[in-house]
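INPUT
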Amino acid sequence: MVSLQITPSTSVVLHILLTGVVAQDGWGVKYTPKSICALKGSTVIIGCTYTYPLGFAIKKSFWSIRQVTSTSEPPDLSLDLRYQDRVQYLGDKQQNCTLSLRDVTEEDQCKYYFRFITYKADGKFQDKNGVQLFVTDLQVETPEEVVEGDDVTLTCKTTCNLTGPSYIWYKNGVSLSSNTKALNLKTVSSEHAASYSCAVLGQSHSSSAVILDVR
Ligand SMILES: *[C@@H]1O[C@H](CO)[C@@H](O)[C@H](O)[C@H]1NC(C)=O
Ligand SMILES: *[C@@H]1O[C@H](CO)[C@@H](O)[C@H](O)[C@H]1NC(C)=O
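OUTPUT
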């Protein structure tokens, strides 16, 4: 008869397989979500929690865009000139490592890693996966050629999937009633020839305006 014994080491392996989180002996960082798509100009909240074994106390915790190496600590994001006015640590020294980053640009698109150091010499941790930030602009996509009578769809294009946004469409600067990513124009006429732009509800950044020509 074969019996399955759950030893401490198999339970660690099971934990990794089931959660994808490497929490060796209680050391771990969990980001929610694991990747983020943000609109240029918006504020991003990176949800984060961390764990460590009992008996340790946190001396220092910070975020970085670099991984720790065998010889050096990664640079602290809050001391980086490109970030220092825009990052805010919303976490604590117990288990919350949530970070806020405002006014994001495409240059911020990279991986972010949380690092924490305890008072004990070997009590340090940084996970290897990090959290991926994608930053998108908005771009109005139109068909190359539009002829009177066509049904036309304009799309508010993004380079990553924003979660649950409501879109706003503008025709010559005036908002339209459509709130979806695609703007459908039925049987177009010269009245539809105009300048179109799109935005996301609650965000100030909008796309460039695109002229729709109707032949
Ligand atoms: C962590 O802190 C943030 C900001 O204060 C809060 O919104 C979030 O709910 C906290 N997360 C947990 C798991 O406590
Ligand atoms: C974005 O969403 C679309 C439609 O739901 C899906 O087909 C596509 O794979 C998603 N792209 C990414 C990068 O998740």
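end of record. The two ends are 80 Å apart (CA to CA).
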